[in-house]
Amino acid sequence: MKIRIFTYVYLIYGIISNMPNSTLILVDDHPIFTKGLAQLLDSQPTYEILGTASTSQEAVDLVRARCPDLAIVDLNLGDQDGLELIKDLRHIHKDIKILVLSMHDERYYAERALKNGARGYVMKEDDITNVLEAVKTVLSGKIWISESERDRLFEYLSSGESLQKNNDKFTTINILSNRQLQIFKMTGKGLGTSEIASKLNLSPKTVDTHKEHIKLKLHCNTSQELRQLAIEWVNE
Q1: Looking at CB atoms within 10 Å, which of 48, 153, 162, 179 has the fewest?
Q2: Quick check: 37 and 54 in contact, CB under 8 A?
Q3: pTM confidence score
Q4: Which residues of 98-118 are buried (b: 16+ CB within 10 A; e: fewer)?
Q5: pLDDT at position 39, please?
Q6: Are residues 180 and 222 in the same domain?
Q7: What's the rounded Cα separation, in Å, for the pair 129 and 201?
Q8: Which structural domain range is residue 129 located in?
């Protein structure tokens, strides 16, 4: 009997130890946070961290070189657009799964991230157990968003109510395009048209055109109203 039990234990241990690891990369421009997250995931027996990236280009190069199963991506990569990076990574490696781990409020970014090809969205302020569960869920092929965001999306889908009718003055921001949202956020951080144009490789005229469209969508009568709303939103 003891021999049989020992044999079962040995076989189970052998199966577990020979299970293929899920390979991950981390994309975040905060090295202290990245190091802590890497240590957390390394402590899990079936995850292998292939590398980290702090810029979009580093992430693209890393995915090309290593073809990871999962990329955990922050949307805030300096002045680079994390939403565009999601599409780029999916174009390079169509089977890669992407989990967004960001400080940005999921009310404004989760749906955008999923539309761009991410399979999950979790906020940095969430409990560690939620982060680990999100990683596990996305790797299994399912989608992860918080219960509150799931309920919010279901409410709008089931009621057919326009986002503009919501009492939250920031809700209409959801109707901005990804580029418009990027410019709106930069405006809220105090950047002027020339600075935004330089960072996004656009002409000042193009940025001003985007701002006019943003003003119309958000019902701002003047550039000052738009700037004030953007500042309030960034600091919400």
Answers
A1: 162
A2: no
A3: 0.74
A4: bbbbbebebbbbbbbbbebbb
A5: 93
A6: yes
A7: 40
A8: 2-150
